[in-house]
Design goal:
The chain is of the alpha/beta class. The protein has a single domain (about 5-280), classed as Metallo-beta-lactamase, Chain A (4-Layer Sandwich), CATH 3.60.15. It is about 35% helix and about 20% strand. The chain contains 9 helices and 12 strands. The strands form 2 sheets. Strands 1-2-3-4-5-6-7 form a 7-stranded mixed sheet. The radius of gyration is 18 Å and the shape is globular.
Length: about 280
């Protein structure tokens, strides 16, 4: 079989287009679990995709239990729960649920994970406050208040250590996570930017967003984009390449160049919107 390494530049261009367009896609069928169901899959030694077609959920395996990133919502929560079981894990072993931001598609299933599986929910204080107010897009079961995280906070579970960055803009309390993934035992630095969408307005929020992107761009040695919407990291196309990977091929998710290029694209668009608002357009 021909090595996929030769297609790497084309993949980078496709990823950037997909990342840029992801949140602007048609919303039809987003709430239908049959249309949204995706078979779970392993991406790294310790990281698995258990999300839906339009919104992500990721499972991080540690030696002392499981960490889930984002909860899905409504009937889609079953996709994550069933996916975890299909991979051979037990949802009762979820120790922490890390919520990237308090929009319904990421936090809407959190209360179920609390009640059924005893997961401890973590998000920023600003977004805990959002869960106590009027929802921005739609109503969802509000999670019981657990723990807050902020800039520079860390979480240790066994030998796994995560570091957090408050990166507001998409909401006022977006939480980004930094952790290590392993490819056949070889470590790579991964980041989940907790809120990349530019579906908001206002100079103050746009300024927050640009500052957040600048801080992410300044982070050294980021190699893996763990996106909380699949289109923002071209997750499914990369997984197809991963399935066909041959000895000596790069890991399709280890792509620092597209991480940087994506952030630069987000920053450019945010600055253009800020400039437009300042001009009164």
């Amino acid at each position: 079989m021909k090595s996929k390494a030769a297609n790497w530049p084309a993949l980078l261009l496709a990823c950037l287009f997909g990342m840029h367009q992801g949140l602007a896609q048609d919303t039809a069928g987003r709430d239908d679990p049959e249309q949204q169901r995706v078979a779970p899959f392993q991406v790294f030694d310790n990281l698995y995709y258990v999300g839906a077609r339009w919104v992500s959920a990721w499972l991080l395996e540690t030696d002392q239990g499981l960490i889930l990133f984002d909860s899905l919502y409504g009937d889609l929560v079953d996709i994550a729960v069933e996916g975890i079981r299909e991979l051979g894990f037990d949802p009762d072993d979820i120790r922490y649920l890390i919520v990237s931001h308090a929009h319904y598609d990421h936090v809407g299933g959190a209360r179920r994970f609390q009640q059924e599986f005893g997961a401890v929910v973590l998000m920023t204080e600003a977004d805990w406050q959002l869960t106590e107010g009027e929802p921005e897009f739609r109503e969802y079961p509000r999670p019981m208040r657990h723990l807050s995280l902020g800039n520079g906070d860390t979480l240790n579970l066994g030998r796994t250590r995560l570091r957090f960055l408050q990166s507001p803009g998409h909401t006022t309390g977006v939480l980004s996570s930094v952790f290590t993934v392993y490819d056949n035992g070889y470590p790579h630095t991964a980041v989940m930017f907790g809120g990349a969408g530019l579906n908001f307005e206002g100079a103050e929020r746009l300024g927050m967003y640009i500052d957040s992107v600048d801080r992410l761009l300044a982070m050294p040695d980021v190699e893996v984009n763990v996106s909380n919407h699949p289109d923002s990291g071209d997750v499914f196309a990369r997984y197809e390449m991963l399935e066909e990977r041959q000895d000596g091929d790069p890991h399709p998710f280890v792509d620092p160049e597209s991480w940087t290029a994506w952030l630069e694209l987000l920053r450019r668009d945010a600055q253009a919107r800020l400039d437009s608002e300042a001009a009164g357009n």
